Task: inverse folding
């Protein structure tokens, strides 16, 4: 049974998730806005453009998200982990996701488990662990 990460954003869900889909070669599979709710009781706090729910597929996996409707708090205790298929893709993805990062826990570097690895929190508040195992990939 696959696990589906669900991310919360502070009013910029559509921008963040569209960016992730573009950078990671994914597809937006659904967007439900506050304005789509059938009645005011079904809406979250905020304007019509707040995202109640949306998803993106990336390489057969699903990531879902929404705006937090005034209840947003900084994510902690997890990171989205992604293994790039090549060093060039690592560099491209890192440049796009880490641009204007809120925090960098580890700049891109070689480790004992990967030819390149980085940890950062992107401009939307999502923590990432990005790697390229390369020559250190277990056979």
Result:
């Amino acid at each position: 049974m696959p696990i589906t990460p669900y991310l919360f954003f502070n009013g910029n869900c559509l921008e963040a998730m569209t960016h992730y889909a573009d950078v990671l070669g994914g597809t937006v599979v659904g967007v439900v806005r506050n304005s789509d709710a059938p009645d005011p009781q079904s809406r979250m706090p905020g304007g019509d453009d707040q995202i109640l729910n949306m998803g993106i597929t990336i390489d057969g996996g699903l990531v879902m998200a929404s705006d937090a409707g005034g209840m947003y708090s900084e994510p902690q205790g997890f990171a989205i982990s992604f293994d790039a298929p090549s060093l060039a893709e690592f560099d491209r993805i890192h440049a796009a996701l880490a641009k204007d990062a809120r925090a960098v826990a580890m700049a891109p570097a070689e480790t004992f488990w990967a030819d390149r690895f980085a940890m950062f929190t992107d401009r939307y508040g999502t923590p990432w662990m990005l790697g390229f195992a390369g020559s250190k990939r277990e056979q």
